[in-house]
Protein 1
Amino acid sequence: MLTSVVNPRYDQPVSREVVVDQTFSKRLREARRNKGFSQRDLAGLVEVDYTYLSKLENNRADYPPKNDVIRALAHHLELDAEELSYLAGRITAEDAKVVQDLAKTHQKQMPVLLRTIRDNPELAQRILQEAHQEEQPED
């Protein structure tokens, strides 16, 4: 199960639309074209209206795609479903649990930390690099 999250770059959208990361939109359009599908063809396979697929490709959807739609898109376009989910602004249930646990443990500090990371991309990059290094097995 995946949980919807808001892309931090779009914290305060001008409209009420949920903004899907443009990389998701580009990936979807490129993969569809590479497979030779029209929007109507792919929409039929995925069982969504072609106008919704068009909105996803043009980054104009009112909401991010549901899990089953992402899985179907990934299947028909031969893309990695988990990567596509993250690009669509969704995270795994396991990752959502980690965030929830941290929020419970650090109720007052978590919002401050998340806003700081959102507003300081350089800091976010340093934290991510350190976390990645921590995950690497030692030789």
Protein 2
Amino acid sequence: MPVTPAYRWPLLERITGTPTWVKHKNATPTGAFKVRGRLVYAARLLDAEHPVRGMVTATRGNHGQSLAYAGRAHGIRVTITTPAVDTFVDGIATRVPDGDAVDVMVRGAARFVQVSDQATEQAMRYLWQTMHHMPEPSGAIALAGLLADTARPDGAVAAVIMTGGNCDREFVQRVVAGP
């Protein structure tokens, strides 16, 4: 799979106030970075001592699309169920954080910012207005975080990753219309 592109968008940089690179993980066959990992995972399952005949997952988003893509590419049957969720940014929310994962993030991060659903929705609108790309909420949350980062040093260069387009028409219309 080819490397996904990264671009600077001048209109977006007017909003961020800093040089901003956007890594377009939405330029994969499923619109998300997950497809690359799922292709590797499926290949490893076939190479295992006891190859699998199928995979089952519960998801509403790009994970399922990516797993289905990898299954088709490797001839593995995939079953996907779609549970109901009650979060604007599905795929991001966690009810019980994994302590080890939190420790790793804390050790590697200069700082954390918290963003609201409203800030994420505004970031989606900015990406639509400046690049004509409509990511799903989890694909815009990095930009929301950049905009919320008041501790960012002057002159800093930023990079955000944009993934997914897992939005239905009604949702996109509501987001574009704004509050």
Protein 3
Amino acid sequence: MLGEQIAEETGKVMVRRVISVDGGPRIEVTVQGTGKLLGIETRNTVTYSAGVRPDGSLYGEARPGRSSTSGCAARWLLALFVVLGSTSLMGAARADETPAASDIEDGASNDYDPWQHFNEKMFFFNHDVFDRHLLKPIAKGWNKALPDVGKRGLDRAFDNLGMPRRLVNNLLQGRFRGAGREVARFGVNTTIGVVGFLDVAKAQLHIDSSDADTGQTLGVYGWGPGPYLVLPSLQPLTVRDGIGYGVDGLLDPVGYVTPFLATTGMSVVKQVNKRSLNLELFQDVEDSALDLYSAVRNGYLQRRHGSIEQAIEARHTERHPPPVKETAAR
């Protein structure tokens, strides 16, 4: 039994390995949380199980237990911990029984989604409840209140603040020129570009930003994506990208120098601003997709796969630059 503290909430995690009825190994993780989150009394229990069938395929399910109404917010915070922790335990338990994660990625389809039943429920909440009744209406109001140039400038400023994440992951990937470009972009855009509202580095110096993050770094080094995962109010993820998302949060310097409420406010503004910039794009996707869940899932997985392939190619090009062609003598 382990003690775990998440935000202002304390909880207990009970882990056990069992043999399922079909003979395959299974990991069960039960999280019992009590305490306060933002001053709200919380009590909740969630049991998550994941295992391996005899044919080598993975499966998983989450079984929410009894919880107080005010504990819903804390339950979503615990969900990511449960998924990530149980996945790591499951990987250790079956290390001698199945191929490596990268082998699974090579052999699996591009829409690897063993937790689809759970994910579809979370997708319904995100799209039909959270976005439709909260985020989208606020984004529409934001779109009317702020001119387009202001929204795009704010988006560039938030992107400028993400420099530490991109810098660290460029270094971890061995893309040292990419890390140098990130430092140069940050210096130019923070000063001449008015704390990033103007992308002077790209417009005048042709220095492009990278999309490096921890999930991408793990993929570059052969870490398979793991199952597709949808969690409340978050972008689509895989288990690998979920781990990366948590690490990227630790690389955000703003959270270390500003109060919690200010950091939360900035995150809300960033999400609303990003949604307002994509109102028409999202609507076009919703109108054209026959199966919106599958379209979002497949689009995300394909984009992440392409991002990792580009990062690997960029690292190879940086380490082995093409030979410079000699100019023919006149």
Protein 4
Amino acid sequence: MGHRRGFSLIELVVVLVIIGLLAAVAVSRLGRMVESTNDAALQRDLQTLRKAIETYSAEHGTYPTAANIVPQLTGYTDAAGNTSATKVDPFEYGPYLREVPPVPTGTARGSRGIAATRGAGVGWVYSEADGSISAALP
């Protein structure tokens, strides 16, 4: 009787199937983890934007305008909401953000634009009437 060397084809197939199943489970969990991380980033960015809008409102007595919200939040403003890139009299308020954060998830992922309605390049949808903001997700 000779000694057996190596593995049979069936043993190799069983090992490959087990490895495949383990890989499928790992990829599935990784996908859920990435989605959860993106959702947390979205909530953090929404909180940052809402805080900036509320601070602007507290100092100006009105919400930023939909047409000028980005420069009003990222630049210096006067009491009327006019903007300036530098802090010179009368532009004494702000900035409230360094930059608008990109949307971290969904079809608008990476977009930084803020507008009253969804559209190309719009990551955030803003309502001037009540200062609400949300991600431009479907």
